[in-house]
Amino acid sequence: MLAAAFWILFIFLILIGVPVAFSVGFSSVLLLLAEQTNNTIVIAQKLVAGLDSFTLLAIPFFMCSCAIMSEIDIGRQIFDFADSLVRHIRGGLAQVNIVCSVIQAGMSGTAVNDIAGIGRLEVQAMERSGYDRKFAAAVTAASSSIGPVIPPSIPLVLVSSIMGVSTGKMLIGGIIPGLVMALGMMITVGIISRKRHYPTFPRVRFKELVRSFVKALPALMMPVILIGGFLNGFMTPTESACVAIWYAIFLGFVFYRNLTLRKMIKIFEASALLCSSTMLIISCASAFGLVITEQQLLQKMASFFTGLSRNPQVILFLMCILFLIIGCFMETTSVFIIMTPILMGTAQELGIDLIHFGVLEVIIVTVGLYTPPVGVGIFLTCKVAHVSAKSFLREIWPFWVTLLAVCALIIFVPALTTWLPDMIF
To answer: In 3D, which of 424, 425, 408, 423 has the Cα closest to residue 177?
Structure first.
């Protein structure tokens, strides 16, 4: 009875617009107090202990480094380099958009950062070259889904912390799936561009390619520092994120010389506010963790799914449907924090590798950002590109189908997520 009341209260609070952190925290604490299984001191300690994690320190560091890189406006150099690489391929600047997102993923960490950081530049460049604005918006949105998959990835860091698995393995596990996503979208762009006769551009000279590479090299070194640091064992992912902040500061003050102390103060303020909201959700989710334990939700959920099938691929497919539905209604961080601890037990019971499960979860929840009716990415992209949601949705669906096809491929070929981490670590 109390468990039913908990879920009713939680869903009611979400529906009336109460922030997820407070919805989760308030309903969880009320249930725990009603059951009298935990006193207030234990609950308070749990809320604080939920943030006592060295791995979680990577999140604010990644957020801060991404904010600095966005402020010093390195998007133009990245875009020009991507343009010199693939402008001659069928689809021209649409292909540049995707490659640019692959490179930007090494600095953005999330899909939202990708759209907000370089999205407007990409849309404007494509429109000037003869592409429909709504198609440009769809390509920009779809390609931004690579951001949370290729390291450094804030969602992958969060999911690895919740699961208690190696953050390094989880981050490396996203590299191949991210590249497969990019390849799938580039094929989709090529097909659409051929049908609509979108323009292409002549191949750039080698000298121009080298010149654009040299200009973009300082920015391109960011993912090298982040990934190379923990791959070689010099730094943990958290320490790599910290080093990335200092590197971004160096670029802003010394190399590009467009960063000031006043801008730095604003960046730290914005990063602190963004980080505090994320950490509040994580803290309140710690109380939810007690609810999971008290109500034996792990066992019940595992019994439910295994009662449907013992085939890992079937269960992953069903979980993906669940993640996609929830992801189009709820903010991604909340989905990871609430659903991951509930479903990971089922994955373990069926012998599903947690790296495989975690990467797949991040991809499908990110796709939910662009799934109607309430996908957050839909409204952000429409605002950045100045297009209507209706016209945007008409253009996004081929990319949506492509990303779901990539998810299906990952379900049936787990090695896409596990081979590289197993080979390196």
So the answer is: 408
| Angstrom distance (rounded) from CA 328 to CA 365 | 8
User: What's the confidence (pLDDT) of residue 114?
Assistant: 61
For the chain, helix, strand, coil in percent to 5 are 80, 0, 20
Q: How many other C-beta atoms can be found within 10 angstroms of the C-beta atom of residue 424?
A: 10
The one-letter amino acid at 116 = A
Q: What is the DSSP secondary structure assignment for residue 200, as one 8-state letter?
A: -
Instruction: Give the residue among 325, 327, 338 at the shortest CA–CA distance from 376.
Output: 327
Residue boundaries of the structural domains of the chain: 38-424
Instruction: Name the stretches of the chain with pLDDT < 70.
Output: 1-3, 35-42, 50, 105-119, 293, 297-298, 373-376
Residue 359 DSSP SS3: helix
Cα 127-130-132 angle, rounded to 5 deg = 60
Alpha helices in 309-388, H assignment, sequence order: 312-327, 332-349, 354-368, 376-385
Give the whole-angstrom CA distance, residue 326 versus residue 15: 13
The pLDDT score that the predictor gives to residue 57 is: 79
Helices (H), 16-57: 20-35, 40-49
The DSSP result for 117-168, as a single string, is HHHHHHHHHHHHTT--HHHHHHHHHHHHTTTTTSSS-HHHHHHHHHHT--HH
Query: Helix (H, G, I), strand (E, B), or coil: what is residue 39?
Result: coil
Token pair listed for 306: 């295994």
Q: For 204, phi and psi rounded to 5 degrees?
A: -75, 155
| Rounded Cα–Cα distance for residues 221 and 204 (Å) | 23
pTM across the whole model? 0.84
Instruction: Give the C-alpha separation, 159 to 112, whole Å.
Output: 18
pLDDT at res. 111: 61
User: pLDDT tens digits, residue range 35-60?
Assistant: 665 566 667 777 777 677 777 777 78
pLDDT digits (tens, 9 = 90+) for 260-311: 888 888 888 888 887 887 778 777 777 777 777 677 766 777 777 777 888 8
